[in-house]
Amino acid sequence: MNILIAGPRGKMGSLITRIASKRADMKIVAGVAPKGRNYIGQDIGMAVGTGERLNAFVSDDINSIIDQCDVIIDYTTTEFSMEVMEAALKANKAVVCGTTGFSEEQFCRIEEVSKHIPVLYAANTSRVVNLMYKLLELAAKTIGNVSDIEIIEMHDKHKKDAPSGTSLEMGQVIAEALDQELKDIAVFGREGRGDRVSGSIGYHSLRAGDISSSHTVMFGLMGERLEITHHAYNWECFAQGACEAAAFLYCKEPGLYTVKDVLGIK
Protein backbone atom coordinates (compact mmCIF):
# COMPACT_ATOMS: atom_id res chain seq x y z
CA MET A 1 0.00 0.00 0.00
CA ASN A 2 1.09 3.58 -0.57
CA ILE A 3 1.54 5.67 2.57
CA LEU A 4 1.54 9.46 3.05
CA ILE A 5 3.02 10.61 6.36
CA ALA A 6 1.88 13.89 7.90
CA GLY A 7 4.45 15.70 10.03
CA PRO A 8 7.39 13.42 9.16
CA ARG A 9 9.91 15.46 11.16
CA GLY A 10 7.85 15.16 14.36
CA LYS A 11 8.63 12.76 17.19
CA MET A 12 6.12 10.19 15.98
CA GLY A 13 6.30 11.04 12.29
CA SER A 14 10.04 10.37 12.11
CA LEU A 15 9.71 6.98 13.82
CA ILE A 16 6.77 6.01 11.60
CA THR A 17 8.82 6.97 8.54
CA ARG A 18 11.72 4.77 9.68
CA ILE A 19 9.47 1.78 10.43
CA ALA A 20 7.18 2.06 7.38
CA SER A 21 10.20 2.36 5.06
CA LYS A 22 11.37 -1.10 6.19
CA ARG A 23 8.03 -2.85 5.77
CA ALA A 24 7.58 -5.00 2.68
CA ASP A 25 3.86 -4.19 2.51
CA MET A 26 4.28 -0.39 2.55
CA LYS A 27 5.73 2.23 0.27
CA ILE A 28 6.08 5.81 1.46
CA VAL A 29 5.07 8.01 -1.47
CA ALA A 30 5.19 11.46 0.18
CA GLY A 31 5.19 13.50 3.34
CA VAL A 32 3.23 16.63 4.15
CA ALA A 33 4.04 19.35 6.66
CA PRO A 34 2.77 22.82 7.52
CA LYS A 35 3.99 25.71 5.42
CA GLY A 36 7.27 27.29 6.46
CA ARG A 37 9.05 24.15 7.63
CA ASN A 38 12.68 24.13 6.54
CA TYR A 39 12.50 20.58 5.16
CA ILE A 40 9.75 21.19 2.60
CA GLY A 41 10.91 19.80 -0.76
CA GLN A 42 13.43 17.40 0.77
CA ASP A 43 13.44 13.63 0.33
CA ILE A 44 11.51 12.33 3.33
CA GLY A 45 14.25 9.87 4.29
CA MET A 46 16.85 12.62 4.42
CA ALA A 47 14.44 14.99 6.15
CA VAL A 48 13.96 12.63 9.10
CA GLY A 49 17.63 11.66 9.27
CA THR A 50 17.55 8.04 8.10
CA GLY A 51 20.51 8.72 5.83
CA GLU A 52 18.62 6.93 3.07
CA ARG A 53 16.83 8.45 0.09
CA LEU A 54 13.30 7.05 -0.23
CA ASN A 55 12.42 8.89 -3.47
CA ALA A 56 9.45 10.48 -1.73
CA PHE A 57 9.37 14.18 -1.00
CA VAL A 58 7.83 16.44 1.62
CA SER A 59 5.23 18.95 0.42
CA ASP A 60 3.31 21.72 2.15
CA ASP A 61 0.29 21.18 -0.14
CA ILE A 62 -1.52 17.97 0.70
CA ASN A 63 -3.97 18.35 -2.17
CA SER A 64 -1.13 18.17 -4.71
CA ILE A 65 0.14 14.79 -3.45
CA ILE A 66 -2.81 13.04 -1.82
CA ASP A 67 -3.81 11.12 -4.97
CA GLN A 68 -0.54 9.14 -4.71
CA CYS A 69 -1.48 7.43 -1.44
CA ASP A 70 -3.88 4.81 -0.13
CA VAL A 71 -3.58 5.64 3.58
CA ILE A 72 -2.47 8.77 5.46
CA ILE A 73 -0.80 8.43 8.86
CA ASP A 74 -1.20 11.63 10.84
CA TYR A 75 0.40 12.52 14.19
CA THR A 76 0.56 16.30 14.10
CA THR A 77 -1.49 19.08 15.72
CA THR A 78 -5.24 19.37 16.05
CA GLU A 79 -5.36 22.21 13.53
CA PHE A 80 -3.22 20.47 10.92
CA SER A 81 -4.99 17.15 11.49
CA MET A 82 -8.33 18.74 10.66
CA GLU A 83 -6.83 20.00 7.38
CA VAL A 84 -5.60 16.48 6.67
CA MET A 85 -9.02 15.04 7.48
CA GLU A 86 -10.84 17.43 5.14
CA ALA A 87 -8.37 16.73 2.32
CA ALA A 88 -8.76 12.96 2.85
CA LEU A 89 -12.53 13.30 2.69
CA LYS A 90 -12.33 15.22 -0.57
CA ALA A 91 -9.90 12.67 -2.10
CA ASN A 92 -11.59 9.58 -0.59
CA LYS A 93 -8.49 8.39 1.29
CA ALA A 94 -8.17 6.45 4.55
CA VAL A 95 -6.66 8.13 7.62
CA VAL A 96 -4.91 6.83 10.73
CA CYS A 97 -5.03 9.70 13.22
CA GLY A 98 -3.07 9.63 16.45
CA THR A 99 -3.24 13.34 17.22
CA THR A 100 -4.67 14.19 20.66
CA GLY A 101 -6.27 17.27 22.16
CA PHE A 102 -9.23 17.66 19.80
CA SER A 103 -12.14 19.78 20.97
CA GLU A 104 -15.59 18.18 21.18
CA GLU A 105 -16.57 20.05 18.03
CA GLN A 106 -13.49 18.83 16.14
CA PHE A 107 -14.03 15.22 17.17
CA CYS A 108 -17.69 15.43 16.10
CA ARG A 109 -16.41 16.48 12.68
CA ILE A 110 -14.05 13.49 12.58
CA GLU A 111 -16.99 11.22 13.36
CA GLU A 112 -18.94 12.82 10.51
CA VAL A 113 -16.01 12.39 8.09
CA SER A 114 -15.73 8.69 9.06
CA LYS A 115 -19.18 8.08 7.62
CA HIS A 116 -17.65 8.64 4.19
CA ILE A 117 -14.05 7.37 4.48
CA PRO A 118 -12.28 4.85 6.74
CA VAL A 119 -10.78 6.59 9.78
CA LEU A 120 -8.88 4.91 12.59
CA TYR A 121 -8.59 7.21 15.58
CA ALA A 122 -6.34 6.19 18.44
CA ALA A 123 -4.96 8.35 21.21
CA ASN A 124 -2.56 5.45 21.80
CA THR A 125 -1.54 2.80 19.25
CA SER A 126 0.39 0.58 21.66
CA ARG A 127 -0.87 -3.00 21.71
CA VAL A 128 -0.23 -3.22 25.46
CA VAL A 129 -2.11 0.00 26.24
CA ASN A 130 -5.12 -1.26 24.33
CA LEU A 131 -4.95 -4.52 26.28
CA MET A 132 -4.80 -2.36 29.42
CA TYR A 133 -8.12 -0.79 28.41
CA LYS A 134 -9.67 -4.26 28.59
CA LEU A 135 -8.15 -4.89 32.02
CA LEU A 136 -9.50 -1.54 33.22
CA GLU A 137 -12.96 -2.44 31.99
CA LEU A 138 -12.83 -5.73 33.93
CA ALA A 139 -11.54 -4.02 37.08
CA ALA A 140 -14.14 -1.26 36.89
CA LYS A 141 -17.01 -3.72 36.46
CA THR A 142 -15.73 -5.84 39.34
CA ILE A 143 -14.60 -3.31 41.97
CA GLY A 144 -15.23 0.12 40.46
CA ASN A 145 -18.28 0.89 42.55
CA VAL A 146 -16.39 0.25 45.80
CA SER A 147 -13.12 1.96 44.79
CA ASP A 148 -11.60 5.41 44.76
CA ILE A 149 -10.26 5.66 41.22
CA GLU A 150 -7.26 7.83 40.39
CA ILE A 151 -5.41 8.23 37.08
CA ILE A 152 -1.81 9.47 37.12
CA GLU A 153 -0.15 10.16 33.77
CA MET A 154 3.36 11.40 32.97
CA HIS A 155 4.84 12.75 29.75
CA ASP A 156 7.75 14.86 28.57
CA LYS A 157 7.79 18.58 29.11
CA HIS A 158 6.88 19.29 25.49
CA LYS A 159 3.50 17.53 25.50
CA LYS A 160 0.89 20.19 24.85
CA ASP A 161 -2.39 18.64 26.02
CA ALA A 162 -3.29 17.62 29.56
CA PRO A 163 -4.67 15.24 30.56
CA SER A 164 -3.27 12.98 27.86
CA GLY A 165 -5.59 11.55 25.25
CA THR A 166 -4.70 8.08 26.48
CA SER A 167 -5.69 8.86 30.07
CA LEU A 168 -8.98 10.32 28.85
CA GLU A 169 -9.65 7.10 26.91
CA MET A 170 -8.88 5.14 30.08
CA GLY A 171 -11.35 7.26 32.02
CA GLN A 172 -13.98 6.76 29.33
CA VAL A 173 -13.52 2.98 29.48
CA ILE A 174 -13.96 3.06 33.27
CA ALA A 175 -16.92 5.45 33.17
CA GLU A 176 -18.74 3.33 30.58
CA ALA A 177 -18.19 0.23 32.71
CA LEU A 178 -19.82 2.13 35.60
CA ASP A 179 -22.70 3.36 33.39
CA GLN A 180 -21.50 6.94 33.85
CA GLU A 181 -20.35 9.82 31.66
CA LEU A 182 -16.71 10.75 32.23
CA LYS A 183 -17.51 14.47 32.06
CA ASP A 184 -19.84 14.04 35.03
CA ILE A 185 -17.39 12.27 37.36
CA ALA A 186 -13.89 13.46 36.35
CA VAL A 187 -11.96 15.72 38.75
CA PHE A 188 -8.86 17.32 37.23
CA GLY A 189 -6.27 18.03 39.93
CA ARG A 190 -7.04 19.08 43.49
CA GLU A 191 -6.39 21.91 45.88
CA GLY A 192 -7.91 23.23 49.08
CA ARG A 193 -9.73 21.29 51.76
CA GLY A 194 -12.55 18.78 51.79
CA ASP A 195 -13.29 15.10 51.51
CA ARG A 196 -12.76 13.19 48.28
CA VAL A 197 -15.92 13.16 46.17
CA SER A 198 -17.28 9.61 46.22
CA GLY A 199 -17.67 8.04 42.78
CA SER A 200 -15.28 10.46 41.06
CA ILE A 201 -12.28 9.71 38.88
CA GLY A 202 -9.27 11.84 39.81
CA TYR A 203 -6.79 13.00 37.18
CA HIS A 204 -3.18 14.05 37.76
CA SER A 205 -0.89 15.15 34.90
CA LEU A 206 2.88 15.35 35.34
CA ARG A 207 5.18 16.94 32.73
CA ALA A 208 8.96 16.75 33.11
CA GLY A 209 12.16 16.17 31.14
CA ASP A 210 12.00 13.49 28.45
CA ILE A 211 9.54 11.08 30.10
CA SER A 212 8.13 9.15 27.15
CA SER A 213 4.75 7.97 28.44
CA SER A 214 3.49 6.52 31.70
CA HIS A 215 -0.06 5.82 32.85
CA THR A 216 -1.20 4.36 36.18
CA VAL A 217 -4.80 3.73 37.19
CA MET A 218 -5.33 3.11 40.89
CA PHE A 219 -8.40 1.43 42.39
CA GLY A 220 -8.15 2.26 46.07
CA LEU A 221 -10.11 0.26 48.66
CA MET A 222 -9.87 0.11 52.44
CA GLY A 223 -6.77 -1.91 53.33
CA GLU A 224 -5.69 -2.61 49.75
CA ARG A 225 -5.33 -1.13 46.29
CA LEU A 226 -4.97 -2.32 42.73
CA GLU A 227 -2.68 -0.48 40.33
CA ILE A 228 -2.63 -1.11 36.59
CA THR A 229 0.32 0.60 34.93
CA HIS A 230 1.87 0.97 31.49
CA HIS A 231 5.33 2.46 30.94
CA ALA A 232 6.70 3.16 27.47
CA TYR A 233 10.50 3.25 27.39
CA ASN A 234 10.50 4.93 23.99
CA TRP A 235 8.04 5.80 21.21
CA GLU A 236 8.70 2.79 18.97
CA CYS A 237 5.74 0.79 20.29
CA PHE A 238 3.39 3.60 19.24
CA ALA A 239 4.97 3.92 15.79
CA GLN A 240 4.80 0.16 15.22
CA GLY A 241 1.15 0.26 16.22
CA ALA A 242 0.45 3.14 13.83
CA CYS A 243 1.86 1.13 10.93
CA GLU A 244 -0.19 -1.91 11.95
CA ALA A 245 -3.25 0.35 12.06
CA ALA A 246 -2.52 1.59 8.52
CA ALA A 247 -2.18 -1.99 7.27
CA PHE A 248 -5.50 -2.84 8.90
CA LEU A 249 -7.27 0.19 7.42
CA TYR A 250 -6.18 -0.48 3.83
CA CYS A 251 -9.27 -1.17 1.66
CA LYS A 252 -11.66 -1.01 4.62
CA GLU A 253 -15.19 0.34 4.28
CA PRO A 254 -15.95 3.82 5.68
CA GLY A 255 -16.27 3.90 9.45
CA LEU A 256 -14.61 5.01 12.67
CA TYR A 257 -12.21 2.25 13.76
CA THR A 258 -10.00 1.80 16.83
CA VAL A 259 -6.96 -0.27 17.76
CA LYS A 260 -9.36 -2.74 19.36
CA ASP A 261 -10.51 -3.54 15.82
CA VAL A 262 -6.88 -4.06 14.73
CA LEU A 263 -6.24 -6.43 17.64
CA GLY A 264 -9.61 -8.16 17.54
CA ILE A 265 -10.40 -7.17 21.15
CA LYS A 266 -14.12 -7.17 21.93
Structure report:
It is found in: Cytoplasm. Pathway: Amino-acid biosynthesis; L-lysine biosynthesis via DAP pathway; (S)-tetrahydrodipicolinate from L-aspartate: step 4/4. The chain has nine helices and twelve strands. The model has no long low-confidence stretch (mean pLDDT 95). It has two domains: 2-121 and 236-263, Rossmann fold, CATH 3.40.50; 127-232, Dihydrodipicolinate Reductase, domain 2 (2-Layer Sandwich). Strand 10 (213-221) and strand 11 form a beta hairpin. Strands 3-2-1-4-5-6-12 form a seven-stranded parallel sheet, with helices on both faces. It has a five-stranded mixed sheet with strand order 8-9-7-10-11. It is of the alpha/beta class and 266 residues long. Helix 1 (11-20) crosses helix 8 (236-249). It starts with a strand and ends with a helix. It is elongated, with a radius of gyration of 19 Å.
